[in-house]
Amino acid sequence: HWIDIPSPFVHVLAEPGDRAAATRLSRRASERLRQLSERLRVPVGDTVYVYLTPDDEVFRSLQPSRAPMWADATAYPASGAIYLRAQRARVSNDEPLEVVLDHELVHILVGRAFAPNRPPSWLQEGYAQVFAGQQGPDTTRTILRGRAMGGLLPFSSLMKGFPHDPVKADLAYAQSADLMAWLMVEHGEEVLPELLRAMRGGDSNAVAFHRVTGRTLTQIEKQLSNLELDLYQHY
Q: How far is Cα 224 from Cα 175, in angstroms, rounded to an integer?
């Protein structure tokens, strides 16, 4: 009984009562897919299917794998599927649903760019937050809190994978977004598509960062750490 709202590159599926929201999201997703693919310098690829789910039970029953309890949305690049909670069913509604959609669209594009391999978590989550406009004061607060509670995650740890501990995982998300935002400030917007191209081409973390920035990971980590320390001492 679900309805299908198609637009270029996208189909949004929802219950009839969510037609207005589905129509809005369909238009948004179609426009943002084009924009994001241009910014990332990757193709859009096959059709993306966005499922706007009315409640937690439906959200979980449609997943091809188990979703985290805190998740408001999930994305599966191989099948081009995104599962969103309708606004009334969200775990956290402190940001617009459109921003959550943008985040998941980046996951689709980046995941497809790396296929059949999987992108590293720091790149996947860092890009998704920056290009969805989620990097901001909350990111800064998380980093400051992490420094106050025992220190930040070293790059060598961050780039091996995210911790299972929820607090440290939250810090890993924030540090990944902060790194991507810092790269854009230091080297311009083109640095992120260039880094993505180097990484999907098979470069290691160290080689890719040196190729696009001219600096070693150690140098980048030290400079970024000094900036964060200045901010911490200011607060």
A: 10
Whether the pLDDT of residue 24 is over 80: the answer is: yes
In whole angstroms, what is the distance from residue 209 CA to residue 158 CA?
14
- Of 68, 67, 71, 73, nearest to 50 by C-alpha is 73
53, containing H or E segment: strand 48-53
pLDDT of 231 reads 56
**Cα–Cα distances in angstroms (integers) from residue 201 to residues 43, 105, 155, 180, in the given order:** 15, 21, 21, 19
Taken in order 134, 198, 74, 50, the sign of the CA dihedral is: positive
Instruction: Quote the pLDDT of residue 30.
Output: 97
| Angle of CA points 138, 129, 64, to nearest 5° | 120
How many whole angstroms separate alpha carbon 102 and alpha carbon 27? 12
What is the model's pTM?
Answer: 0.93
Q: DSSP states of 62-109 as a string?
A: T-SSPPPTT-SEEEETTTTEEEEE-GGG-S--SS-HHHHHHHHHHHHH
Say if CB 168 and CB 114 are below 8 A apart: no
Residue among 140, 138, 163 at smallest CA distance from 153: 163
Is there a contact between 29 and 50 (Cβ–Cβ < 8 Å)? Answer: yes
Q: What is the crossing angle of helices 205-213 and 191-200, to 10°?
A: 150
198-224: burial string, b at 16+ Cβ within 10 Å, e else: bbbeebebeebbbebbeeebeebbeeb
